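User: I'll paste a sequence; please echo it back and then give the predicted structure.

Assistant: Echoing your sequence first, then the prediction.
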Amino acid sequence: MSEPRRPGRQLPRSLQRAARALGCGAALLAGLLVLGAPSAQGATAPTVTVEITAIAPQVTRPGDTLAVTATITNISAAPIAQAATSLSVYRFAFENRAALDGWEMRTDSAVGTILTTDQATDPLLPGQARSVTLSVPADSIGLLSSPDGWGPRGIAVSVATGGVRVGVARSFMIWLPAAPAVSTRLSIVVPLTESPDAVAPFDPSSRLSAVLTATEQHRNIAWAVDPAIVSRALTDPAPASDWLARFRAALPNRDIYALPYADADVAALAHADRLDLYLDAAQTGQNQLESALGDATIARLAWPASTAPDLSTIDLAARSAPVVVLLGSNDLAPIEPLAYTPTGRAQITTQSATVGLVLSDAVLTDELTNPGSRTQATAVQRVLAETAMINRERPTTARHVLAALPRDWTPVPATTSAQLAALDAAPWIDTTPLATLIGTPPVALRRNALPVSGSAPGELSAADAARIGQTVADLNAFGSVPADRAAALGSLPDDLLDLTSVGWRSHPDQRSKAIDTALARSKALLGAITVTKSSAVNLIASSGEIPLSLQNGLDQTAHVLVRLKPSNPRLVADSTIAVDIPAGATASVKIPVQAVANGDVAVDVQVLTPSGSLLTTGDPFVVRVRADWENRATLVIAFLLAIGVVVGVVRTVRRGRRETRLSIDEARLETEESPGVAEEMALLEHRDGEPTAGGESPPRDAEPGDTEPAGGVDG
C-alpha cells in the first residue's frame, strides 16, 4: 500500500499567499481586465509609498460615508508635482477565500472603479509624507442592497502624476446592507509558553508581556498555559510579579488549559517511547497550575508542536487524558476539496483510542499571527474580510472555526487588540470560548491519513529521553528518603522536565549541555547515602548479626531500609532493617543472619528507599560461615567439665576419709584429758580386753583387718 499523502506541510508565507492568489475566481479576473491592462509606467517601481492608515467605518452599511485615510511618501529623488490621490472600489463580490489574497497581492495598476480623487496643488518633495483622507457616500458606490449582496469588497488608494500611476495600496471594505441569517462561531486559543533559555521573559518589552497585553482584555480568548511559566513567575522578583498580577487579573471568565509542564515535546517523547515522562509532565503541570491559581480544576490540552504530526504522537498525547488534541487544519485535510470551511472538530482512531481533535484554520490563524507589512487598519479589514467570506460560504449553516496562534507568536499589541475588538463587534462572528467548540460533536469527513511515525528537526533524541526518564524515576523514588523532600530535591525534578520542552528544538547544543549538568546534579544527590566498606566477617554460630555503617551526606535526616543479599544459600538474610541516619552523620545497624552450611559467602549490601526502591549498594564483602564450630566447642567443653567433675569427686572422697580418721584421734585425746572420763575409758578398755570366742584378746587399737584368720595358731 502506498504511503498516505501528507497534506500538512507548511510553505513560506509568501508562497502560501501566491498559491491562494492563483485560486482567485474568474469573476475577479474579468472584473479587473475590464479596467485595462497595466501600463508600462505602472510596471515600473513606484516612486511613492502608500499606506492606508484608517478605514471608517470598519463595516459599511447603507447611509454611511466611507472615509479612507492614507499616508503618501515620496521615496524618489525628485519632487512629484500635482500628485492625484484616488479612492477606488472593486464592486464585484469575491468568489472564495483565496480571491482575497488575489486582490491584496496584485502588483499591477488595476484598482477597480475610481470613486473620488484628491488633486494636490503643492509638489511632494523627496522624502516628504502627506496624509490624505478620501470620502464617499456608501450609497453612491453602486453596491447591491439585497441581503445576499453583503460581504467584502476590494478597495485601493492610488497615486498618479501626469496620468501615470506611481503608487497603490489595497485593502477591503465590508459591505453589510443586512445582518446575515446565521453567525459563525470563532474560538481563539493563545499559548503562554516560552523557550527555557529565554532571558528576562517577564520584562515589559518581552514577548510574553506583548502576548498578555494583546489578549488580556479579551475574555473569550482561551489561554493554553505552560505551568512552568507561572511557577517561574512565582519565584522570580519583579518584573515577574507585575506580569503575574496582570495574568491573574485576566483569568476570570476565561478558558484556561494546562499544557504539560515545560511544554513537553509530545512528538519527541512518543518517538522515544517515553510515556512515563509525558504523563509525569502532564500531571505535574496540571497540579502546579491548579495550585498556583487557587486549586481550581483546570483541564489538560495536548498541542503537538510538529507541523506534520503522526499517529504515534497523537496516541501518546491522548493517553495523558486531555480534553482534546489540537492540530492544524492542514495536518488533517479532507480528501475531497471542499467549497466551504467546515467546523474545526474531528476525531481520529489511533492504536489505543479514538481521539477527539480540534483543528485550527490555517489562513485565519495566519492573518491574526502575522499582519506583515499591513497597517493596523488594513490588518483589521483583512481579518474581517476573511471571516466574512467564511460565513458567506454557507450563509444558512452554523459552523465553528478555530484560530490557534503559534508558540513563538510575537504580537504587535495594538494591532492584535484592534483585530480582536473588530471581531467581537462583527455581526457575522460570534467569538466563543474554546470549551464550546470542544463540546461540539466531531464532523464526519473523510480525511487524509496521518503517517504512523516520523520525526522533526531538533527533537530530543531517544537516548537523551531515556537518560532523563530514568533519572526522574530515581529522584521520585529518592524523594521518600529525606525528611523534607522539597528541600532536598529542590528544583531538580522540574529542571529535568524542562529538558523535554519543545522550546529546545531550536537550541540542541544548549540542550545537550543542560542535560549533562542536570544529570550530574542528580547523580550527586542520589549518591548522598553511602555504605562504609565492610571487612570479612566470621560467623561461627548457626545465627548471628552482621554490623554495617551508613553515611548520610544530606543536611537532614535520611530514612532508609537496609538488607543483605548473600550470593549463596549457605547464608540466609531475610530481614530488612529500617534506619534513620542523622544529617551529615554515620549510623550503625546490625542485620540478623542464619547459617545453613559451612563455606565462604559473598554478600551484597542493598540500601532501599522507604517505599522499597533500590537506592544504592555497598561494596560486597565475605562472610566465613563455620556453623559446626559451636557444636564442636560445646562437646569439648562438656568433656572437660565431665573430667573435672570426676576428679573433683575422687578428691573429695579421699579427703573425707582422712579427715574422719583425724577426727577420732583428736576426740580420744580430748576425752582423755577431760576430768571423770578416764575412769569410763578404763572401763571401756577392760571390756574391750575380754577374751573373744577364740580365747585371745585382740591388741588395742588393732584394725579389724589385722586380726588373724579364724582357727588361729596352735599352743
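The CA atoms of residues 87 and 157 lie 5 Å apart. The first helix runs from residue 13 to 22.
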